[in-house]
Amino acid sequence: MSTVLLNGTPINVGGRFPRAGDPAPSFMLVDTNLQDVALSKFWKRKKLIAVVPSLDAAIGMVIAKRMEGLGYELDHTVLLTVSVDTPYALSRIGESEGFHKVQLMSTLRGRDFHKDYGVMITDVPLSGLMATALIALDETDTVVYSELVSDINSEPNYNAAIEALNPPKAEETEA
Fold it and tell me: Residue 101 domain-assigned?
């Protein structure tokens, strides 16, 4: 069990948060069209997964917008924002915000994600929501970066995740 903060108050988070070098746990999430989406759908592609409590929470929207912006910068990378929001709500938000690069995903039928990715808030009144996190996976679904954000209302370190996804090539470091 981990602990994060919400406005200075400790909140317990259950499950096992993945670490760099771990194989990513498989998942089944739901997209905005009510279709099940497995991690295996993105095999052979890099993935940047932002986990947020809700897109109705200010931090959730800030992170989703940042992920959308990163979609224009990162080639060959799947960008996912995962929340407990319903696919209907995610569809409405995606359309109203003009999201085209980030894929909004719901844990509607994928509640194992909360525990398997170590983001399951266990304390009332927030139990059922997820803690804020950022996880980067390589093309073989190995975790290359993971951050359970210390305060639910804070943004993760996007730059560190991007660097882990796109390390400098040997010839670039020798120059």
Answer: yes
